[in-house]
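During the reporting period, we have paired protein sequences with C-alpha cells. One record among many follows, to show the layout:
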Amino acid sequence: MSKLLKSKITCIGCGRTDASVHARQFFFHFDFDKAWNFNLNQRLNKALPDDIAVFDIIPVEDFPHAQFDAIERTYEYYIHTSKDPFLNGFSALYEHKNLNFQEMVRAANLITSYTDYSQFCKTPERNDSNFCEVKSTKLFVNQQGDRIRFQISANRFTKGMIRVIVHRLLEVGNGSLTVKEFEDILKGLYKPKEITIAYPQGLYLIKVKYPFLDLPTCPDFFGSAINHNMYWVDVSNSND
C-alpha cells in the first residue's frame, strides 16, 4: 500500500489467525486523505501473492475500526475422515469412523448457553477477559458421513477457541468424552490437564459483520474442492 500510494500507510486488520488458517472474508482499514487516479484494487491484486485476493475498496466516514468495531464473526471448520489429496491444506483429516453426530450436536448446542471460555483458550491467563457471546452453532454432515462442517458465530473469540472446541467435539463424537464432561468443561467444573487444538487448515473465517457494513461472502472464492457435488445435511436441530 505504501509503495502504490507513495505514502507511509498503516493497515489495521479485523483480526489475526494462526498460520494455515483461511479467510473467505477479511477486512482491513487504512487512513489516506488524498484521491488516487488509478485502479487501486487491480494494482493491489497484481502486487499480492496468488493466495490473497482483494475484492473491494470501500470509502468510509469518520473513524471506523476494522478490528474493534466488528460486532460478529463467523467461522467454519471443515473435516474429512478419509485421506483425499485434493483436500490437502483446505480441510482437516481426522480418520475417525462412525462418529456419533447426534452426541456432537448435543454438545455443540450447549455452547451458546455459556460465556466464559477460559477452558477453551490456548492462553487464558494472558487475556483480560475470556468472556464471549456465542450467538449460534451448527453442525453439517454430508450424505456419506465422511465430511463434516462446523459453524460458529460470536461477538469475539479467544485465542485458539474454535480449534479447541472442534477437538472436544471430535472427542465427544468418538466416545472419549461425554456430553456431560463437555458441559462440565464449559462450566469450569472439569479442567483437562492439557488443551489440545484441532489442525489449523480446517478453519475458515467466513464473515465479519459491522453496524455500518454487512456484506455477503463472495460465493466464488471458496475452493471448489470443498463443496463440489456435495449435499450437506444440517443435523444441528435433529431429534433423531
